[in-house]
Amino acid sequence: MRARLPRPRSLRGRLLLALLASAALALLVLDAVVYGALRDYLTDRTDTTLRAVRQRVSQQLTEAPPGQALGNDVRLLGASEFFLRLRRPDGSVRELAPGLRTAGDAPRLPDPLPRPGTRDPVTVPAERDGGPEFRVLTQRVAGRGVLVAAVPLADVRETLRRLLVVEAVATGGVLVLLGGAGLGVLRRGLRPLEVMAEDADAITAGRAGGDVAPADEDTEVGRLGAALNAMLAGQRATQERLRRFVADASHELRTPVTAVLGYADLHHQGVLEEPAHRERAMRGITAEALRMQRLVDDLLLLARLDAAEVETPLRPAEVDLVELVEHAADAFRASHPNHPLTVVPGPQALKLRLDPQRVRQVLDNLLTNAAVHTPPGTGVSVGVWVRDGSARVRIADAGPGVPAADQERVFDRFYRVDKARSRDRGGSGLGLAVASSLVRAHGGTITLESEPGSTVFTVSLPLTLAEAPSDSSSMPRRQAGEASNR
């Protein structure tokens, strides 16, 4: 059976391990540097002292008469830890400082001896296990032989051994303290992240719907929490809009369905036996069916625009925008004779690449909106001009205007300024939403400016053809019958 791979460590564990590994490496390098520096310092100091002793003893041997005893005088010159020997020319060896050591502590002389007079001592290994090492220097003394000076390195080795113990204890203690402090800091620093993960899991599982735990936004974790909270707020807003959209769409569809069912019920009850009654019922069913069809078409169009399908619902072609506006104006005059319409003079022609059917739908929706939300006799105007590299269509009316509190939501789906208005007069609440989505699909914008006595919708479309008329510095002057521009 294949062995299971170990589960990965937590982020806190990996960070703590990386911290301790980095700290241990840095401390080991520091310990090695301190150890090496102290070893070199102690060895250099020992060598300096050894050179001085060798020089003094060599000078004494040179100045002493040939027949004079040297033992006591030399003993006064050398310290008790030094070994001094004189190898005579005849090969015999004389201890110049007897009684300063036990016989077993005498150094083993290297063979051959270091060249007399060399400045740098040599290290002689211990004669026996556990014995001391020595630093040895030699000096040729005229008429006396070769002076051998040695000093044991026991003190140096003991000092270095103690340093290693101190460094090991200090390094271990620092790592333990650093591990504890690092664990506490990591726990405190990553706790908001853990809480966010728990909250996110709960939100995913549907157990909670609030924001994640707040954190200091100056830190990376705090910024992550702020981003998650923004995402959750957007998700909740989207869900709320979707819920409201589904509820409004269901309500809008239920009204014509209820009417159709009502006519069907009348037929089953035998109320529609007379031809005139049946004809009126059929006209009502047809009207409600067409109403449902328009509503479904609008919803489908909005869904396709929101989904940004690869096959866009737009079918662009080279179209004269001025001619398109004139056709929309003629249709408006025929369908709304009680609202006088003025076409403001502008460019003779304005060729753009756009979907004529969809832009015509935008114009019809905006003009119909002006007629539906204003009393009979209210003037409406429409004009085309070019400014700041874009083609603009302005549709204005002199109606009561849109309240400031509702202006930001007039392009929302199923939103009505007058909640009490009947659907037969007020529509489904999708006209402006469809217009806004279609304009955005063309890469343009639609804006609203409204105050009592004036409401202006401005549609801006990009100039996508090479040949375009020069921008006019200002919009056309208001003609008679046109609503005022704010």
Name the overall outline. rod-shaped
What radius of gyration results from the CA coordinates? 51 Å
Largest sheet features? 5 strands, antiparallel
Mean pLDDT across all amino acids = 76
> Could you list the spans in which at least 5 consecutive residues all have pLDDT below 50?
71-79, 98-103, 419-426, 465-486
Q: Which percent bin holds the helix content?
A: 40-55%
Number of extended strands: 12
Proportion of β residues? 5-15%
Distance between the termini: 81 Å
Structural category: alpha+beta
Number of helices: 9
Kindly report the spatial arrangement of strands forming the biggest sheet. Answer: 2-1-5-4-3
The helix/strand order is HHEEEEEHHHEHEEHEEHHEE
Draw up the topology in text.
Layout: H1 11-63, H2 71-77, E1 83-87, E2 93-95, E3 122-124, E4 134-141, E5 145-152, H3 154-204, H4 220-268, H5 275-307, E6 317-320, H6 321-335, E7 341-344, E8 351-354, H7 356-372, E9 380-387, E10 390-397, H8 423-426, H9 431-441, E11 445-451, E12 454-462
Parallel strand pairs: 7-9
Antiparallel strand pairs: 1-2, 1-5, 3-4, 4-5, 6-8, 9-10, 10-12, 11-12
Helix pairs in contact: 1-3, 3-4, 4-5, 5-9, 6-7, 7-9
Summarize the structure.
The protein has 486 residues and is of the alpha+beta class. The protein contains nine helices and twelve strands.
Features:
5-stranded mixed beta sheet; disordered C terminus; alpha+beta; 15% strand; 486 residues; 5-stranded antiparallel beta sheet; rod-shaped; 49% helix; single chain
Describe the overall structure.
The protein is of the alpha+beta class and 486 residues long. The protein has helices at 11-63, 71-77, 154-204, 220-268, 275-307, 321-335, 356-372, 423-426, 431-441, and strands spanning 83-87, 93-95, 122-124, 134-141, 145-152, 317-320, 341-344, 351-354, 380-387, 390-397, 445-451, 454-462. A hairpin with a 3-residue loop joins strand 4 (134-141) and strand 5 (145-152).
